[in-house]
Amino acid sequence: DAGVIQSPRHEVTEMGQEVTLRCKPISGHDYLFWYRQTMMRGLELLIYFNNNVPIDDSGMPEDRFSAKMPNASFSTLKIQPSEPRDSAVYFCASSERGEAFFGQGTRLTVV
Amino acid sequence: SQQGEEDPQALSIQEGENATMNCSYKTSINNLQWYRQNSGRGLVHLILIRSNEREKHSGRLRVTLDTSKKSSSLLITASRAADTASYFCATGGGGFKTIFGAGTRLFVKA
Questions:
Q1: Quick one: which of A21, A27, A36 has its CA closest to A76?
Q2: For A31-71, how does the pLDDT look when each residue is reduced to its tens digit (9 = 90+)?
Q3: Residues of B in contact with A95 (CB under 8 A)
Q4: Which distant-in-sequence residues (6+ apart) come within 8 Å of A17 by Cβ?
Q5: What is the mean pLDDT of chain A?
Q6: Residue B94 has pLDDT above 60, yes or no
Q7: Do A56 and B98 touch (CB under 8 A)?
Q8: CB–CB of B43 and A99 under 8 A?
Q9: Which of A43, A94, B72, B89 could join A29 via S-S bond, C-beta 3.0 to 4.6 A?
């Protein structure tokens, strides 16, 4: 397996634009996590899914953030409208009841 | 809010020395995991210790868990320059929600 695949690796967008981050988890993993990492706040859990169902989205900062998992092999994190304070590295991870495997992250810059 | 808190925040040692990092957490857990993150990269899983285990080894890594004190330690023996990275503890609780601490930055000088 190629591991957790995230796209794009880098995204630069203007304030107010919609941003969509994508994640392909490891096949067979039934948990998927979205994290955000910044220098100020560290690594924050935004939302996680089990068997494609959102279990806990209490970490989603605002209604501008939404996440979906339409099937077991794909998830998206959308920010609409984006703001400069959303600039961060966004990680997707998947697991099978234990260790989490992380993607390489998407570095988002909102100018 | 953070579940795990690593200590120290930063650690600088000479190659060959041992590095010890600590993690404290707040609520009951099913397991505790340690991860490494090299600058600009994703996190890599190092070791998982379950709540009914007290100590676990993996190569140069030794992890202990004290559930009565809600704390864990990660020991890296005979450190190498390549061990330079940030180390995070993460706790797994109900529903396998994994929460990370702020991390310890380890710098190993050659």
A1: A21
A2: 999 999 998 888 888 999 999 999 989 889 889 999 999 99
A3: 96, 98
A4: A81, A82, A110
A5: 93
A6: no
A7: no
A8: no
A9: A94
Candidates A55, A56, A98; nearest CB to B48? A98
For residue B83, is pLDDT > 50? yes
Q: Report yes or no: B59 and B46 within 8 Å, Cβ to Cβ.
A: no
**What's the confidence (pLDDT) of residue A18?**
97
H/E stretch holding B49 reads strand B43-50
The nearest CA of chain A is from the CA of B4 a distance in Å of 11
Q: Which residues of A touch B41 (CB under 8 A)?
A: 104-105
Q: How far apart are CA B10 and CA A57, in angstroms?
A: 31
CA of B74 to nearest chain A CA: how many angstroms apart? 16
Pair B72, B55: CB distance under 8 Å:
no
Q: What are the residues facing A45 on neighbouring strands?
A: A35
> With contact defined as beta carbons under 8 Å apart, do B73 and B11 qualify?
no
Token pair recorded at residue B90: 């993460």
The neighbouring-strand residues paired with A90 are: A36, A106
Which of A51, A49, A46, A52 is closest to A64 using CA atoms? Answer: A46
In this prediction, residues B18-30 reach a mean pLDDT of 89
Q: Are A32 and A75 in contact (CB under 8 A)?
A: yes
